[in-house]
């Protein structure tokens, strides 16, 4: 009880210190940045006005900007819109409103040194019924005007190919259209729409999305994993396989609907799909709800994987809902839960609620924020294969796993309590302090390579187990700042003291293959650095995480690793941009196995033994 009272007294002193501006001025370094920063982007702005073809402002239009981040705004009564605190870079800007034809999306370069203003023009749709135009290749009404009398001759690539297609194709098309004079009008409208899509000089894909209030992204990726560089020339490497990802977002006046999906094929065929709705940030209730579903089917020759999978497949589904309720001008209440079902667990249903209270205690100085968080999380071994990544590209399940002791899979259960404070100091420095306590039952362990340091790890399959139960308490400090232009860096230091209270049946098997995963009472030190930047000359975006810890587990007879990393590079390809699409090249290299949520178990990443290196590359198209 005395120790508990002492820790809370220390927290009170820390909070009092946070509320003193002079103390922050003494602490603020000149070259550090915060990992927990509320806004890690440089202070760039983009604003403008939406007008009609007569120059009158249009209220209620949905304006979207797609780039390094995707943001939406709604024009006000004077047609004005604004995006603030945008990361610098190129953005595809479009506007939509029912009853108006949208202007073609334009790529706008946003920089930190200037504010960008644009006027977007929308043309009201012509509601009068007009005769269908003459279609390329002769498709259309028989009484159409002769080609010589046309006001404009279409010389587009698609139209040229249709005119010069084999006569048998043209004849079939004419026969298909013949005799439609007596059909309902909607058939004529459909044929007219097909004619416009085929006859336009722009790409067919652009024509499909030009008139829709939809923003999207398509990723065509290739990924591979390896343990050691020499494995690239051996059979002990996951053969590069393709991944397709599609995301569609429909911006509304009050929020955004999003549908996402990813799929891959091969010996391990899998896919993941999700749908969600998220309300705008300026509402009193900023709620979000959605669902995900992922499936994995293995057709390879790994006996352990086949024995662990029921009928050769695994299925995982989840639904979630969270709300951030602004109960007062300086106070907000957050609450919600996630319900997941894993078909490879004996007890399939896992429930994870969460609640938080955020307060700005001073009406004069709004730079100080206090937050208290209480959460319970239940997660299954191998869940990282089915839960979409929070910091990287979406990938469907790409590895198989089995129990280290050939027993049943046991989920990990975590109770987490945290008090945190953040304050913006001088020169844009943001400093955060937090204290937390955790109680974990059945801490997960992931093991690659069977624990032998002399043989290459089997990167496409790993073993999972439980190391036991523990209690932990700790504290952390984070410092962050935008250094030069778009360069933003942050450093987070965490110290944890853990006390193990119980062991599980997997301990016997783990003691043979990975004894370093079995811990006694210990103190852990963790340092994580994050860097984000945009190279102005090429508009290249770079994001990197580097994690150093003295708690990483090692295989038998192997030295403990000191660091793991995640690097992602996005390079715009402006020479491929056409119509309303923006092309980017993506390259990522990662040794971190899991994402690093601040309310997750302190051992989740530390007890991953010999995670392989994953390389990901491909092309991203935003429209």
Describe the structure.
The chain has 623 residues and is mainly beta. It has two domains: 136-209, no CATH class; 215-622, Maltoporin, Chain A, CATH 2.40.170. The protein is 12% helix and 46% strand. It is built from eight helices and 30 strands. Residues 1-11, 13-41, 129-155, 158-211 and 451-457 have low confidence and may be disordered.
Strand content: over 45%
How many individual helices? 8
Give the total of beta strands. 30
Just give the CATH class of the largest domain: Mainly Beta
Largest beta-sheet details: 18 strands, antiparallel, barrel
Keywords:
mainly beta; 2 domains; 18-stranded antiparallel barrel; disordered N terminus
Protein topology:
Layout: H1 2-18, H2 21-27, E1 44-52, E2 62-66, E3 70-74, E4 80-86, E5 89-96, E6 100-101, E7 106-110, E8 116-124, H3 157-163, H4 167-177, H5 185-199, H6 204-209, E9 215-226, E10 241-251, E11 255-264, E12 268-279, E13 285-298, H7 303-308, E14 313-328, E15 331-342, E16 349-359, E17 368-379, E18 400-403, E19 412-424, E20 430-441, E21 444-448, E22 461-466, E23 469-482, E24 488-502, H8 506-513, E25 522-535, E26 540-549, E27 563-572, E28 582-590, E29 608-609, E30 613-622
Parallel strand pairs: 1-8, 18-22, 21-29
Antiparallel strand pairs: 1-4, 2-3, 2-5, 5-7, 6-8, 9-10, 9-30, 10-11, 11-12, 12-13, 13-14, 14-15, 15-16, 16-17, 17-19, 19-20, 20-23, 21-22, 23-24, 24-25, 25-26, 26-27, 27-28, 28-30
Short description:
The chain has 623 residues and is mostly beta strands.
């Amino acid at each position: 009880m005395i120790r508990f009272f002492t820790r809370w007294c220390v927290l009170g002193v820390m909070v009092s210190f946070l509320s003193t501006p002079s103390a922050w001025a003494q602490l603020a370094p000149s070259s550090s940045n915060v990992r927990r920063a509320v806004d890690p982007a440089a202070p760039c702005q983009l604003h403008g006005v939406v007008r009609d073809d007569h120059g009158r402002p249009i209220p209620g239009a949905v304006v979207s900007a797609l780039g390094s981040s995707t943001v939406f705004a709604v024009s006000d009564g004077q047609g004005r819109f604004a995006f603030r605190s945008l990361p610098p870079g190129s953005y595809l800007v479009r506007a939509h409103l029912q009853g108006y034809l949208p202007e073609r999306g334009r790529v706008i370069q946003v920089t930190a040194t200037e504010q960008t203003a644009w006027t977007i023009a929308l043309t009201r749709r012509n509601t009068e019924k007009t005769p269908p135009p003459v279609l390329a290749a002769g498709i259309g009404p028989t009484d159409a005007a002769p080609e010589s009398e046309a006001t404009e001759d279409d010389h587009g690539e698609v139209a040229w190919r249709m005119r010069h297609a084999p006569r048998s194709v043209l004849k079939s098309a004419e026969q298909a259209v013949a005799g439609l004079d007596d059909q309902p009008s909607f058939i004529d409208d459909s044929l007219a729409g097909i004619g416009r899509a085929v006859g336009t000089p722009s790409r067919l894909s652009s024509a499909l999305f030009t008139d829709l209030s939809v923003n999207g992204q398509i990723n065509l990726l290739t990924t591979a994993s390896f343990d050691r560089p020499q494995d690239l020339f051996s059979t002990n490497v996951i053969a590069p396989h393709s991944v397709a990802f599609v995301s569609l977002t429909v911006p509304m006046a009050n929020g955004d609907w999003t549908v996402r999906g990813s799929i891959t094929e091969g010996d391990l065929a899998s896919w993941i799909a999700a749908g969600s709705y998220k309300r705008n940030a300026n509402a009193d209730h900023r709620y979000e709800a959605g669902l995900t579903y992922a499936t994995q089917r293995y057709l390879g020759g790994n006996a352990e994987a086949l024995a662990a999978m029921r009928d050769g497949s695994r299925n995982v589904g989840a639904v979630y809902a969270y709300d951030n309720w602004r109960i007062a001008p300086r106070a907000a209440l957050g609450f919600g839960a996630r319900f997941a079902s894993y078909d490879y667990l004996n007890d399939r249903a896992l429930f994870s609620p969460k609640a938080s209270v955020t307060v700005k205690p001073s009406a004069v100085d709004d730079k100080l924020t206090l937050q208290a968080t209480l959460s319970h999380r239940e997660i299954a071994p191998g869940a990282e294969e089915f839960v979409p990544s929070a910091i990287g590209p979406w990938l469907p399940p790409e590895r198989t796993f089995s129990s280290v002791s050939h027993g049943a899979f046991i989920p990990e259960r975590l109770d987490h309590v945290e008090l945190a404070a953040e304050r913006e100091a001088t020169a844009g420095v943001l400093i955060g302090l937090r204290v937390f306590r955790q109680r974990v039952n059945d801490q997960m362990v992931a093991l690659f390579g069977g624990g032998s340091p002399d043989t290459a790890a089997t990167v496409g399959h790993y073993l999972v187990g439980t190391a036991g139960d523990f209690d932990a308490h700790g504290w952390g400090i984070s410092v962050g700042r935008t250094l030069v232009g778009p360069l933003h860096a942050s450093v987070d230091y965490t110290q944890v003291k853990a006390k193990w209270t119980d062991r599980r049946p997997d301990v016997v098997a783990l003691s043979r293959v990975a004894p370093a995963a079995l811990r006694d009472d210990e103190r852990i030190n963790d340092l994580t650095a994050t860097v984000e930047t945009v190279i102005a000359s090429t508009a290249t975006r770079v994001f990197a995480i580097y994690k150093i810890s003295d708690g990483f587990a090692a295989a038998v007879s192997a030295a403990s690793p000191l660091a793991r990393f995640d690097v992602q590079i996005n390079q715009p390809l402006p020479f491929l941009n056409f119509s309303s699409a923006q092309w980017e090249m993506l390259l990522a290299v990662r040794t971190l196995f899991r994402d690093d949520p601040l309310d997750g178990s302190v051992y989740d990443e530390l007890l991953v033994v010999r995670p392989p290196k994953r390389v990901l590359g491909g092309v991203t198209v935003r429209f």
